[in-house]
Amino acid sequence: MKTARLVVVLGLCTLTVGVMPALTTAKEAAVSTPRRIILMIGDGMGFGQVSAYRQYADNPATPALESTVFDDLLIGTIATRPSGDSDLITDSAAGATAYACGVKSFNGAIGVDADNKPCETVLERAGQRGKSTGVVVTSQLTHATPAAFYAHVSSRKNIAEIAEQFFTGTGARKVDVAFGGGADDFSASQRQQLQQSGVQLVTTPAQLAALKQPPTFGTFAAAGLPMAIDRDANTPSLASMTDKALALLDANPRGFFLMVEGSQIDWASHGNDIVGVLSEMQDFATAIASARRYADQHPDTLLVITADHETGGLSLGRDKQWQWRATLLHQIRASAAGMAARVLAGEDAVATLQALSPIIADDADRARLNASERDADRLEEAFADIIAKHSLTGWTTRGHTGADVPLYAFGPGSASLRGHHDNHWLGQRLMEFVQAGGPAPSAANRSMTDRSKTGRSQTDHSTTAKP
Ligand SMILES: [Zn+2]
Q1: pLDDT tens track for 353-368
Q2: I need a surface site. Which of 97, 313, 362, 427 has the fewest CB within 10 A?
Q3: What is the pLDDT of residues 331-360, one digit of tens each?
Q4: In a 10 Å sphere around its CB, with 0-12 CB exposed, 13-18 middle and 19+ buried, how is residue 252 labelled?
Q5: How far apart are CA 437 and CA 418, in angstroms?
Q6: Where are the beta strands (DSSP E) in 254-312?
Q7: Which pLDDT score is estimated for 68?
Q8: In the chain, how long is the greatest CA-to-CA distance?
Q9: What is the predicted pLDDT for the residue at 197?
Q10: Same structural domain for residues 187 and 278?
C-alpha cells in the first residue's frame, strides 16, 4: 500500500525535475535562487550561547552593547525534534540529517531516514548538479554533523564505515574540499587512495595557506581540533579554513554547496564550560564574518546559519543574582579542558585556576579541585563548575535540550526562509535551492540526478520548487 503510493510520488517527482529548467529563465534564477550555498551549523548553539557571546564580544570602552555578526541576519527560529513520538530532544546525527536530507530521522541516524533507508543529501545533489562541495569542521570529519552530509549509516558510532563512505559511497569522491580533525579515523590506504586520485593532503596551517585549487583533504588533529582558546600556531582557525574553502570552491561557474560547522560549541556546552563555549562562539562568529564577506562580494550566494539543537540549557545569571560576569570570563585564559590538561601535566589544580583566571578560589573550590586529583573528567568538571559559579552562569544539563534554535540567513532566497520552521523544512528548502540554482545540468548530469532518486522513500524535495 505504502510502496504503491511512493512509486507514484517518485514518478511525479522525476517528471517535475525534467520540466523545471524549461520553466525557469536564466534571469529569474539569478534573482531568486542562489548558485552558491554556505550552510553554517553552530552545533549546540541556542539563544543562550548567542546572548552570552554578544555580552562577551562587547567593547567595554563604549557605552553601547555592540551587535555581532549574527544580529542583522536573524530571520527565524527552528524546532529540532527528531522523528518518533517520544523523543523530544534530538542528537547531532538526526539534527544534521534533517538539514542534509530534508527528513526527520531517529537519533544516531547518519543520512538515513526514519525507515533506515539512505536519503539523498543536499551535498550529494549539489555534486550531481555539477557544483563543487565542501565540508569544514573543528570536530573529526567523520563526526555526526559532517558525516550526515556525505554518508549513509544507521549509527553515528560506525566511524569506519563513515570514513569509507567519505569517498567511495558512490564510487567517486563526493567532497571536493574537506578541512577538520579526525586524521586517525582514516587509514593509510584510504589516504593513499585519495592521493592517487589527485587529492592534495594537508596537515598544517602553512600547507593549508599554500593550497591553490581543489580537490583537497586537510586534517589538522588526530581527533577534534583543540578548542579555540587552547590552540597554538599548529592549528588553523575555523575562519582560516572557511576562507580557504571559499577561495577554492569559488572557481566553479556552477557554484558550490559548503557546510561549515562550529563543532565544539556543543562539546564545551556538554562540559558546562562557559569559557570553552565563548571561545568556540568567537571562532564560529569569525568564520561567519568571512562567509558574510564572501556573500557580500558574490551576490549569488545564500548564507544560512543555524544550530542542530541547544546544549546545556545555558542561562546568563543564576541563584537569584541579577548579573552575569562577562568581564570576569574575559580574563580567563584557558578552557576547563585546557586547565585540566595542565594539571595532568603536573601543575597544581588550585595554582592553575589562580594563574589562568582572576577567580579567588574559596574553601569549597579548593576542596573540589583537590578531590579531583589527576582524573581528567573530574578536573574538567570541577574547573567548569567553579568558573560557572563565579561568573553566575547557569546550566541545567550536561546533555541537549529541546529548546528552539535561531535561524539566520542572507542573500538570494533568504527572504523565503523567514519565520518558525521544523528543522527538516529547512533541509527541503536547501535541496530546492541546489536543484534550481545555477545553470541547468548537462543531459548526463540530469540522468544521474534522476537515477539517484530511486532509493528515496521520503518527502519529495522538488515538487514545491518555485518555477
Ligand atoms: Zn552534543
Answers
A1: 999 999 999 999 999 9
A2: 362
A3: 999 999 999 999 999 999 999 999 999 999
A4: middle
A5: 19
A6: 256-262, 301-306, 310-311
A7: 97
A8: 74
A9: 86
A10: yes
Same structural domain for residues 303 and 450?
A: yes
Q: Are residues 113 and 181 in the same domain?
A: yes
Q: Which of 143, 106, 142, 98 is nearest to 122 (CA)?
A: 98
Domain termination site, one of 346, 368, 394:
394
CATH code: domain of residue 179: 3.40.720.10
The cell for 277 is 563555549
Residue type, 235: T
Indicate whether 174 and 204 sit together in one domain.
Answer: yes
Mind giving me the DSSP string for 349-368? HHHHHHHHSS----HHHHHH
Which residue matches cell numbers 593513499?
A: 192
> Could you read off the pLDDT of 93-121 as tens digits, one per residue?
999 999 999 999 999 999 999 999 999 99
pLDDT in tens, 399-423: 999 999 999 999 999 999 999 999 9
Residues 6+ apart with CB under 8 A from 58: 65, 66, 326
Q: How far apart are CA 3 and CA 228, in angstroms?
A: 49
Give Cα separations from 173 to 134, 187, 446, 466 (angstroms).
11, 16, 18, 31
> Is the separation of the CB atoms in 99 and 438 below 8 Å?
no
pLDDT, tens digit (0-9, with 9 covering 90-100), for 159-216: 999 999 986 544 456 899 999 999 999 999 999 988 888 899 999 999 999 999 999 9
CA 380–ligand 1 middle distance (angstroms)? 17
The fraction of the chain above a pLDDT of 90, given in percent, is 80
State the distance from the centre of ligand 1 to the C-alpha of 144, rounded, in angstroms: 9
Q: Are 103 and 424 in contact (CB under 8 A)?
A: yes
Q: Which domain holds residue 373?
A: 326-394
Q: Which helix (H) or strand (E) holds 419?
A: strand 419-422
- Give percent of the chain above pLDDT 70: 85
Separation between Cα atoms, residue 394 and residue 460, nearest integer Å: 42
In the structure, what pLDDT confidence band is assigned to residue 21 with cuts at 50, 70 and 90? very low
Residue finishing a domain among 371, 394, 417:
394
Q: Are 223 and 181 in contact (CB under 8 A)?
A: yes
- Residues designated catalytic: 92
- Reply yes or no: is the peptide bond before residue 146 cis, omega within 30 of 0: no
Ligand 1 centre to CA of 101 (Å) is 20
Rounded to the nearest angstrom, the distance between the alpha carbon of 459 and the centre of ligand 1 is: 27
Nearest to 431 by CA among 302, 242, 263: 302
